[in-house]
Amino acid sequence: MPFDANLILLDGSIDITAALDTAPTSTVIDASTGARVLDLRETSLRGLAAVLILADDAVANADTFTAFLEVSDQEDFASDVHELGKFDIAAVTKGVILGSEVPAIVIMRFATKYRYVRLNATVGDSPDGFNTVYCFITPYPFKLL
Question: Is the peptide bond before 24 cis (omega within 30 degrees of 0)?
Answer without folding.
Answer: no
